[in-house]
């Protein structure tokens, strides 16, 4: 058991525990914080896979942007409903059953798949600098999806604006 | 760092997110569950890319993150709209799709 | 004389379609404009059908006025039109009913533009089916003819009340039997049910023939194995039969016809039911001759059931539209019986009966519409002595009912006699006896209805002091009645006019079936 | 030339019908409609007289229904002496009746007056066409058309419920007979392939006797309906609801005897089937007796005459059935005149007194002398008193029956002759000599009514004399016989008249006491042999019952089943709809289930697993990304 493995297990444990905390904590703000934590831990995983760029983006976009958004929304609406929501979950048992069934199915098929087995057998070295290749391929081969994605983002921004905009009532200037 | 174990951790996170989506009553809670699921999926993508030694996994994960951001933005906007129009933030009270 | 290559069949078929488009461009408030447009485009079809009737080369026979434009090479779909003796007569029937229908709905005031548009779409479909020589096109037009009916009945129809009873009373009550929505939905579902069978049959023909074509003339040359033919024929029989109102899948017809507005029930009972019979004869018998032989006893026996059962069913009805609708079921039985005889007399009779019954039901439904418009009732027993107030309507009604019971001098007689002769000449001579008996039952109920409505003293219970509402038909309403009655009498006096044409088609068809 | 004459007979009434029918203004002008109609039938009468003189054999055909594989059906006309005589009778009586109607119907409104003459023209055309028809199908066509006219004219006063009912009854009963006719006709066609009489006569002997018998029996069934033979005679008395001239023309002189004419016309076929002929004779004899008996107890003058018609047609049928077709036609010929005369005279009385009941009439001999004389003429002719025409024809029939050895029918008919004389003179004595004062003041009819009656009176007086000529015209050898028999019918008739005189004039006996003595028979007669009740029962219970069954079955079982199926589908879908709660999370379960199923299918069940894995083995082909080993990627390598 080397240091890498220990680090991996610690990270994994943190990820799982924080995820559980996300879905179970009664206060949404706390959930949001735990979500941020789990996203951050994922970024560490990325680094361990040698995807530094991705990890950076994860931290910047996710942990920075998304969580901020969520927190804002929670704060905006907290006064309205939070107190009414005594019970934060509904139908825990079927949800638990369904999600665990899903989990075990995934585990079963990955375990039995010979392809995964062969992949697991040939674990390559994780140490290589990919950021350059990544940027190159992103702007050459994947440029069309990239641009489409930018369009999508634009649409999302506009859409979010339109949706969240308060309708101006008559007589209101 | 076993390939299997990384997969299974991701699956576990995914299932936890799924559980959140299925059981959370607050809409923001549901959105957070979705985030967890996305995150787990990204993790698997990167892991498989890593196992193959190709960059595609990372690229797709990159796109996925961007899409997630868009989704969260729209989703939260919708949440605000629902909260304003329907005066509720509970997922189980929004039942417009009932036939 | 128009040149040889002039696409006259396309003109006939598409004239209502373009008429519908022009109608769509007009504003609703152009009362006269809408009607004149409708009349004009139906007149074009009518003149076209007269033209083909006159210039059809009787010595040559076969399909003429062929138009052929391939559409999809790889699937063997083409725009292929052509007409022989049988389809010519039915085209003529359609254009007559169309003109009469335009006149009969002249006074419709609620959304008349949309009404005409849908009616014309329907008619385009009907014309298309009669002239199509490509099965794909055939099916396309067939569907086009079936679907507008839903809207026509659902929007402009009228409801009636059916007392729920019997073992399925709950179901009958809860389904809302008798309402116009029910009638429309039932009709549409039945006919779509039928067309599903037809589609499967067409695809079967397409794939089993091995020709990769939907062309009728090409498929004619293929001879399939007997068992295959039987299965396909069964599909066509069920599919087209649901439209032709064969027993026991006829129950959409009374409900649908009773709910439909005047021009629609004219068009539907007059022409659309004939599509079914035409389909069985043209596609079923024309393409699957051996199966026609195998199935002839079944078709004929069910047709005989139709005749007698429909007549008795009509006798029980007390709603005028239902009486006419059930008589249609009975008369379609005569058509199918004629088809099942598989000999010249019988088939001639079947086609002539299609024509005659189409005109006759058109007339009767037009009259029922008029009576309903004036008396605001369709319940026979609440009427009485109308002949005094509306002698003209009474006369035309008498002509219609007398055709229905097969009075000589009117076209129904010739058709019925031909079918009777054919039935006796066929392999199952006993068909003759119930068929003739059915004609007698028709006389019983039809004359009874005539008596109840028009004869006897005027019933005061119903229209109280206000007799002024009961007026005879006026103005434009006469035209439809006069046209249709004139045809009935004309064909009845000298049937050779049409029979010459029909005979050409029938003999060719029989040559295929009998060899 | 001869076919032109024939068309001169046939076309004018049709033209009159068409013009009157199509031009409302003509129809509604009283004089125009009647004038046109009478003129046309007058032309027909002249032409038919010319035909009688010419005695032609005309056959004229044109194709009506084409056929390639079977023989086409022709439409055309065919005249033989029988037809020529019949044409004459029809035309003359029709002319007389139409003239008479000018007076009788004068109170009608213009439109219904025009309608009356339109129908009359149609009737004249169809009846003449029927007589001249060359094929069985054509006979059937005109047969139905005269039936239609009868229906229309019985129901002429359609606002009277009785008239409407009687009209419909007449049509139904005759149509019921026509079911037999139609089937028989088709059967005959099926065996011979032709409808043409001339060809049928040639081909008939080739048919098997049983088959031909069946066909003819069925055809005769039609004749029974039309000619009001027992047991289908019930419509004729009710048909008296129509205007009296109509009864005179259609229900006495012409249409009802069409059945007799049919038997005569088809005699070349009937002669091969002696069984059917004797059936015809028996039916005729029974009808004669029943008709006469029923006439005894009627009180309505027209109904008496109607039953008398039934009875007399029975004579004709019996004669035809016994093989004496010329005798049948001869009786038809004379009967047409005197029965029309009787009806017109009755109409004259009804017109004056506004009642049909003989007990409300009386002392008319003084008030209506012309009518009295004419009625007496008719009654004497009907009773068969020398020298009136009925004597000759009835005598011939009775003697023929005797000579042919049909003893029982002979006695039946002889007894009927007695009854005939009795009931006719019962009417005569009650109506004209009776002492009861009528409510309305009787008066003689205008000349347009009396003139036709006088002509018919002369004809009924004289029509019997040219007996020999008549038979020669029909190419029939009348036998000479002089025995006690020749006087027997006359004696019987005179005896009948005498009895009536004793009963109703001198009142030596009370008829009611006789009726009481014979109460079972009287009861049967009052009930009209329960035939009406039976038919009503069949109509009400059987036909309506079946129709109820069919209609109910259709609505509630066949359609009910359809509704039940659709209803159960709807109920099921309603239950299923509960699944759709509207909560997104609940739908997610469905999505999860679908994903699990999908994964299970692709990876677990379906045999695609190995194929997928195999393809992923080589990632370069599959995912276009640079391999780590090949760090410097050449873009153009794959191009």
Structure explained in plain terms:
Chain A is mainly α. Chain A has 7 helices and no strands. In chain A, 77% of the residues lie in helices and 0% in strands. The longest helix of chain A has 30 residues, at 52-81. Chain B has 3 helices and no strands. In chain B, helix 1 packs antiparallel against helix 2 and helix 2 packs antiparallel against helix 3 (56-86). The longest helix of chain B has 31 residues, at 56-86. Chain B is elongated, with a radius of gyration of 16 Å. The model of chain B has no long low-confidence stretch (mean pLDDT 83). Chain D has 29 helices and 2 strands. With 639 residues, chain D is mainly alpha-helical. The chains are: A mainly alpha (173), B mainly alpha (99), C mainly alpha (515), D mainly alpha (639). Chains in contact: A-B, A-D, B-D, C-D. Chains C and D meet through helix 7, helix 13, helix 15, helix 18 and helix 19 of C and strand 1, helix 6, helix 7 and helix 26 of D.
Give the amount of beta strand of chain D, in percent. Answer: under 5%
**Cα separation of the termini of chain C:** 38 Å
End-to-end Cα distance of chain D, whole Å, is 101 Å
Largest sheet of chain C: 2 strands, antiparallel
- Separate helix tally of chain D: 29
| Biggest β-sheet: strands ordered side by side in the sheet of chain D | 1-2
Give the overall form of chain C: globular
- Biggest interface and residues each: A-B, 86 and 70 residues
Spatial extent as radius of gyration of chain C: 22 Å
| Average pLDDT over all residues of chain C | 85
Which stretches of chain C of 5+ consecutive residues score pLDDT under 50?
none
- Tell me how many strands of chain C there are: 2
Q: Give the proportion of residues in helices of chain C.
A: over 70%
Structural class of chain D: mainly alpha
Structural class from helices and strands of chain C?
Answer: mainly alpha
Which percent bin holds the helix content of chain D? over 70%
Percent range for β-strand residues of chain C? under 5%
Radius of gyration of chain D over all CA atoms, rounded: 37 Å
């Amino acid at each position: 058991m080397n240091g890498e493995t220990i680090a991996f297990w610690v990270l994994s444990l943190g990820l799982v525990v924080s995820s559980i905390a996300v879905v179970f904590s009664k206060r949404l703000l706390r959930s949001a914080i735990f979500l941020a934590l789990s996203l951050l831990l994922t970024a560490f995983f990325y680094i361990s896979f040698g995807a530094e760029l991705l990890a950076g983006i994860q931290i910047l976009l996710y942990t920075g942007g998304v969580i901020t958004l969520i927190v804002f929304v929670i704060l905006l609406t907290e006064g309205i409903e939070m107190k009414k929501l005594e019970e934060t979950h509904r139908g825990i048992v079927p949800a638990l059953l369904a999600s665990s069934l899903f989990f075990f199915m995934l585990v079963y098929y990955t375990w039995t798949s010979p392809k995964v087995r062969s992949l697991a057998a040939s674990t390559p070295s994780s140490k290589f600098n990919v950021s350059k290749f990544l940027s190159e391929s992103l702007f050459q081969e994947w440029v069309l999806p990239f641009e489409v994605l930018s369009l999508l983002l634009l649409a999302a921004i506009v859409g979010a604006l339109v949706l969240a905009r308060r309708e101006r009532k008559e007589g209101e200037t | 760092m076993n390939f299997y174990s990384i997969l299974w951790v991701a699956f576990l996170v995914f299932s936890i997110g799924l559980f959140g989506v299925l059981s959370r009553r607050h809409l923001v809670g549901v959105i957070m569950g979705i985030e967890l699921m996305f995150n787990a999926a990204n993790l698997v993508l990167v892991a498989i890319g890593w196992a193959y030694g190709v960059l595609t996994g990372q690229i797709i994960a990159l796109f996925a993150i961007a899409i997630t951001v868009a989704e969260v933005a729209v989703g939260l906007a919708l949440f605000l709209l629902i909260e304003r129009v329907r005066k509720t933030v509970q997922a189980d009270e929004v039942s417009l799709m009932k036939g | 004389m128009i040149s040889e290559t002039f696409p006259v069949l396309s003109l006939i078929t598409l004239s209502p379609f373009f008429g519908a488009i022009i109608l769509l461009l007009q504003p609703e408030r152009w009362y006269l404009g809408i009607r004149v447009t409708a009349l004009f485009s139906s007149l074009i079809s009518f003149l076209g059908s007269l033209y083909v009737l006159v210039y059809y080369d009787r010595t040559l026979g076969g399909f003429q006025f062929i138009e052929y434009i391939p559409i999809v090479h790889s699937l063997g779909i083409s725009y292929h039109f052509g007409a022989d003796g049988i389809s010519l007569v039915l085209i003529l029937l359609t254009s007559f009913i169309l003109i009469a229908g335009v006149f009969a709905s002249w006074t419709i005031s609620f959304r008349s533009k949309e009404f005409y548009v849908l009616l014309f779409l329907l008619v385009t479909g009907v014309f298309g089916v009669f002239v199509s020589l490509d099965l794909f096109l055939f099916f396309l037009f067939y569907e086009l003819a079936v679907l507008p009916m839903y809207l026509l009945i659902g929007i402009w129809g009228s409801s009636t009340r059916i007392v729920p009873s019997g073992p399925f009373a709950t179901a009958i009550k809860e389904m809302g039997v008798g309402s116009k929505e029910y009638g429309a939905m039932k009709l549409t579902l039945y006919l779509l049910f039928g067309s599903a069978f037809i589609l499967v049959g067409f695809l079967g023909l397409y794939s089993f023939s091995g020709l990769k074509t939907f062309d009728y003339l090409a498929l004619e040359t293929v001879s399939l194995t007997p068992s295959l033919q039987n299965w396909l024929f069964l599909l066509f029989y069920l599919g087209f039969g649901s439209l032709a109102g064969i027993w026991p899948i006829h129950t959409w017809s009374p409900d649908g016809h009773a709910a439909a507005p005047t021009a629609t029930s004219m068009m539907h009972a007059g022409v659309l039911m004939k599509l079914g019979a035409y389909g069985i004869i043209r596609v079923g018998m024309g393409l699957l001759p051996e199966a026609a032989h195998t199935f002839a006893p079944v078709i004929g026996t069910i047709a005989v059931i139709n005749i007698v059962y429909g007549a008795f069913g009509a006798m029980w009805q007390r709603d005028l539209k239902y009486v006419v609708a059930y008589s249609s079921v009975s008369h379609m039985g005569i058509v199918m019986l004629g088809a099942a005889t598989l000999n010249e007399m019988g088939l001639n009779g079947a086609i002539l009966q299609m024509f005659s019954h189409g005109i006759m039901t058109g007339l009767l439904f037009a009259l029922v519409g008029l009576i309903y418009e004036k008396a605001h009732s369709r319940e026979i027993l609440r009427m009485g002595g109308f002949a005094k107030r509306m002698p003209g309507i009474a006369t035309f009604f008498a002509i219609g009912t007398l055709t229905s019971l097969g009075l000589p001098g009117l076209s129904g007689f010739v058709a019925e006699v031909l079918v009777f002769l054919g039935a006796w000449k066929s392999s199952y001579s006993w068909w003759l006896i119930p068929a003739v008996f059915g004609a007698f039952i028709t006389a019983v109920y039809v004359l009874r209805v005539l008596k109840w409505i028009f004869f006897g003293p005027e019933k005061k219970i119903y229209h109280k002091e206000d007799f002024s509402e009961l007026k005879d038909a006026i103005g434009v309403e006469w035209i439809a009645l006069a046209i249709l009655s004139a045809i009935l009498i004309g064909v009845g006096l000298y049937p050779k006019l049409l029979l010459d044409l029909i005979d050409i088609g029938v003999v060719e068809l029989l040559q295929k079936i009998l060899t | 030339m001869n076919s032109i004459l024939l068309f001169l007979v046939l076309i004018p009434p049709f033209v009159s019908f068409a013009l009157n029918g199509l031009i409302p203004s003509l129809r509604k002008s009283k004089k125009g409609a009647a004038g046109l109609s009478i003129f046309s039938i007058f032309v027909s009468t002249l032409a038919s007289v010319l035909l009688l003189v010419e005695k032609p054999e005309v056959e004229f055909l044109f194709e009506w229904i084409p056929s390639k594989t079977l023989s086409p059906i022709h439409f055309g006309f065919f005249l033989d002496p029988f037809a020529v005589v019949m044409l004459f009778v029809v035309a003359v009586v029709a002319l007389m009746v139409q003239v008479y109607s000018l007076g009788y119907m004068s109170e009608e409104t213009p439109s219904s007056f025009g309608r009356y003459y339109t129908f009359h023209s149609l009737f004249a055309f169809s009846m003449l066409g029927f007589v001249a028809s060359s094929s069985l199908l054509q006979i059937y066509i005109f047969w139905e058309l005269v039936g239609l006219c009868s229906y229309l004219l019985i129901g002429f006063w359609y606002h009277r419920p009785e008239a409407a009912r009687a009209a419909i009854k007449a049509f139904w009963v005759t149509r019921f007979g026509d079911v037999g006719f139609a089937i028989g006709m088709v059967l005959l066609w099926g065996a011979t392939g032709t409808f043409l009489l001339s060809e049928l006569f040639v081909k008939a002997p080739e048919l098997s006797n049983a088959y031909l018998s069946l066909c003819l029996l069925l055809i005769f069934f039609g004749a029974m309906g039309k000619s009001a033979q027992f047991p289908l005679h019930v419509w004729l008395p009710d048909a008296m609801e129509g205007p009296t001239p109509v009864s005179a023309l259609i229900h006495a002189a012409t249409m009802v005897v069409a059945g007799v004419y049919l038997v005569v016309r088809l005699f070349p076929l009937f002669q091969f089937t002696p069984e059917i002929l004797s059936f015809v004779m028996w039916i005729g004899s029974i009808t004669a007796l029943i008709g006469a008996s029923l006439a005894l107890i009627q009180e309505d003058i027209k109904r008496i005459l109607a039953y008398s018609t039934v009875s007399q047609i029975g004579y004709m049928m019996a004669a035809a059935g016994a093989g004496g077709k010329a005798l049948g036609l001869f009786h038809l010929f004379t009967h047409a005149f005197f029965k029309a005369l009787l009806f017109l005279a009755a109409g004259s009385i009804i017109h004056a007194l506004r009642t049909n009941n003989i007990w409300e009439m009386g002392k008319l001999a003084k008030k209506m002398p012309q009518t009295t004389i004419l009625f007496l003429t008719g009654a004497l002719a009907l009773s068969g008193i020398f020298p009136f025409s009925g004597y000759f024809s009835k005598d011939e029939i009775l003697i023929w029956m005797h000579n042919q050895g049909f003893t029982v029918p002979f006695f039946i008919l002889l007894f009927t002759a007695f009854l005939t004389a009795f009931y006719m003179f019962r009417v005569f004595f009650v109506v004209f000599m009776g002492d009861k004062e009528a409510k309305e003041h009787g008066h003689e009819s205008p000349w347009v009514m009396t003139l036709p009656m006088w002509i018919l009176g002369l004809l009924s007086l004289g029509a019997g004399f040219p007996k020999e000529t008549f038979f020669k015209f029909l190419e029939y050898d009348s036998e000479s016989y002089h025995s006690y028999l020749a006087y027997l019918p006359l004696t019987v008739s005179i005896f009948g008249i005498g009895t009536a005189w004793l009963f109703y004039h001198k009142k030596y006996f009370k008829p009611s006491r006789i009726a009481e003595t014979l109460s079972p028979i009287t009861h049967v007669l009052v009930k009209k042999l329960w035939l009406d009740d039976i038919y009503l029962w069949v109509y009400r219970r059987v036909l309506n019952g079946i129709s109820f069954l069919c209609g109910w079955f259709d609505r509630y079982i066949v359609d009910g089943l359809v509704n039940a199926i659709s209803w159960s589908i709807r109920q099921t879908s309603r239950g299923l709809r509960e699944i759709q709660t509207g909560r997104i999370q609940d739908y997610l379960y469905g999505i999860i289930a679908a994903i699990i199923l999908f994964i299970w299918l692709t990876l677990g069940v379906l045999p695609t697993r190995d194929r997928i894995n195999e393809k992923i083995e080589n990632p370069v082909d599959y995912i276009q990304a640079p391999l780590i080993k090949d760090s410097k990627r050449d873009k153009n390598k794959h191009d």
